[in-house]
Amino acid sequence: MSNDSNSVSPSSSDLTVIIDTGCANLNSVKFAFERLNANVVITADFDVIRSAARVVLPGVGTAGAAMAGLVEKDLVNLITSLTQPVMGVCLGMQMLASLSNEYGGRSNQAIECLNLVPTEIGDLDNKGLPLPHMGWNQITVTDHPLFTGIENGSYVYFVHSYRAPLSDYTLASCEYGETFSAAIGKGNFFGVQFHPEKSASVGAKILQNFLNMGKAQ
Amino acid sequence: MLAKRIVPCLDVREGKVVKGVQFRDHEIVGDIVPLAARYAQEGADELVFYDITASAHDRVIDKSWVSRVAEQIDIPFCVAGGIKTIEQAREKLAFGADKISINSPALTDPSLITRLQDEFGRQCVVIGIDSFYDSESNSYKVKQFTGDEAATKDTQWFTQDWVEEVQKRGCGEIVLNVMNQDGVRGGYDIEQLSMVRSICDVPLIASGGAGTMEHFKTVFEQAKVDAALAASVFHKGIIDIGELKQYLHTQNIAIRR
């Protein structure tokens, strides 16, 4: 049923926008959507972002640097005002939270994030395991539409040292030292800690589920 | 549970995948993108592309293929070879590489590790270490510029000291390549890898020596590495990645299937 959308041809009214946050890895996310024949652009243009069917907030690096980048590009108010599905990826997910304790050497204070999902990002309690948590790990999912057709125990690719704790806003969980949120969300804002664009067929399925959202314009 | 990673390494020279024995006498194995796609299809968990000539000859890799790989494969990959500056690293990441691996330039200027970490986060910063067992001094030592035999030289570093130094400076992962074992398929150096594991708090990738499926089992079980890298056994079809993962699964090692 949901696989029908694989054959839907892209049109300008079904645009997926990857916000150009100025961080380095934007192309891998774009390529992953293109492998699904999606109509996708990377941009920081306000009008294009506002008119998109769905929006991706990517990110690598530190929370402090990433938030500074959003402020510099004047994107904070724009992002928080969006009403279409918005998916954060990795650090992009963490930026949806209220606060992050990843200072990145810039200060000793918690970084104020977008405050779209009421949770706070903190250190992953690795219990002596190597950090970063890097590699393929298994997720337990909820019935959020992002995880339609994804089985519990599926492997996806993670790279991170900070995490969102389990909370009312957890959409999927994973275990590494502790059990933490592999995905969080509230309303039209949600995000995944792992990299669906690098998670082989499981990741492609999750991205396809995202493409199935926000179709009604 | 976090899966142990199987990582084919594609040594790149002049835009082709090559493989030498103990870093010498390189032979062409095949084209980059089709090989990368094949390994991803067979179940590789990650790929490493290493331009073996770049550091030694003071030039950076032709990066057009980085983008072509990123377009076609949906698993993570790391690019290594002659990355000496923030801008060179940014370029590889922008083309779609997930990580960049630094070896000789980090030995020349260890501050590069910290600067890369500050700019991109430590998860992108892999340090490759070419370590060899020096029988004269009965110790492990680090070599530099190993991509070219004529340029290869010893460094002041004992392997364990360098492993601790690169972590302190902010690397996110270490690839330990044991040179005495490279390309001869006699098995990973369990003793050395176990020693490094005991002082390594970041993910550790074993490299050098894989010849049989049992070697992978042993290095995961005994040296407790996070990933095992190999080249010739995959390129020459001696080990099939799918069969290897099936075997490791039956040996109760956590593997993505």
Kindly describe this structure.
With 217 residues, chain A is of the alpha/beta class. Chain A is built from 6 helices and 13 strands. The longest helix of chain A is centred in the last third of the chain and has 12 residues, at 200-211. Chain B has 257 residues and is an alpha/beta fold. Chain B has a single domain, classed as Aldolase class I (TIM Barrel), CATH 3.20.20. Chain B is 34% helix and 28% strand. Chain B has helices at 32-42, 64-72, 86-94, 104-108, 111-120, 159-168, 190-198, 213-222, 232-235, 241-250; strands spanning 5-13, 16-21, 24-31, 47-51, 77-80, 99-102, 125-134, 139-144, 153-158, 173-178, 204-207, 227-230. An 8-stranded parallel β-barrel of chain B has the order 1-4-5-6-7-10-11-12, surrounded by 6 helices. The longest helix of chain B is centred in the first third of the chain and has 11 residues, at 32-42. Chain B is globular and about 40 Å long. Chain B starts with a strand and ends in a 7-residue tail after the last helix. The chains are: A alpha/beta (217), B alpha/beta (257). The A-B interface holds A 24-28, 31-32, 34-35, 60-62, 91, 104-105, 129-138, 155, 157, 159-161, 175-176, 195, 197-201, 203-204 and B 1-3, 5, 40, 45-46, 67, 70-71, 74-76, 90, 93-96, 98, 118-124, 172-173, 200-204, 226-227, 256.
